[in-house]
Amino acid sequence: ETSVKNIGSDERGIPVLQYLDYADTRVVLDGGFPKYYNNAFDADYDNNIKKFVKNCLDWLNRGRNAKVLITGDVYPGAPSPTTNYSIKGSGSTDFGVALPNYIRSLGYQVDILGWTEMDGGAPSALVFDKYSVVLVFSSAYAPLDSPPIGESFCRALENSVRRGTGLMIITDHFDEANKK
């Protein structure tokens, strides 16, 4: 069965945490990115967020290697820049410090690259194949008919994931998608 399984929903019944486990494909869909902000991740006093991240990485990795790619649509020079949510930023509502440092503390090598920084946004699946897990932050606000991440990038990532690269997509815009 290839359907996505819902693990959790918000108070309105909108799914916020889902997974897919089929053949060589493992994906986690997380619709609550504020917990990954530099300031929130560092303030995780009971370590629940860190435990969740470790469990996701362990499940997605499957012992392939110790390399993680963090990518996304908001970074310096991105086609859809915003003032917050940068995968490379050190601000309180960015993602470039606390999460990558924690993942490194687990023994992973972490690369942080914006989607256009990999072969101009059209990488081959081989670019992703060298990672055991790819985390994609989707935080740029864009109309559904003008996605902030290119189609070639997405197809290459899909091909790699179908061959065993673990994928975690992290976003926070389910409300807007459900209004369309």
What's this model, at a glance?
The protein has 180 residues and is α/β, with parallel strands linked by helices. It has helices spanning 38-42, 48-61, 98-105, 125-129, 151-162, 174-179, and strands at residues 5-9, 15-22, 25-30, 67-72, 109-112, 133-138, 166-171. The chain contains six helices and seven strands.
Description of the structure:
With 180 residues, the protein is α/β, with parallel strands linked by helices. Helix 3 links the parallel strand 4 and strand 5. The mean pLDDT is 88. It is built from six helices and seven strands. It has a seven-stranded mixed sheet, with helices on one face. Helix content is 28%, strand content 23%.
Helical content, roughly?
25-40%
Helical stretch tally? 6
User: In total, how many beta strands?
Assistant: 7
CA(first)-CA(last) distance:
27 Å
Strand content: 15-25%
Spans with pLDDT under 50 lasting ≥5 residues? Answer: none
Question: Biggest sheet: strands, sense, closure?
Answer: 7 strands, mixed
SSE pattern, N- to C-terminal = EEEHHEHEHEHEH
Enumerate the strands of the largest sheet in spatial order, edge to edge or round the barrel.
1-2-3-7-6-4-5
- By helix and strand content, what is the structural category? alpha/beta
The value of Rg in angstroms is: 15 Å
> Could you report the average pLDDT, rounded to the nearest whole number?
88
Label the overall shape: globular
Q: What oligomeric state is this?
A: single chain
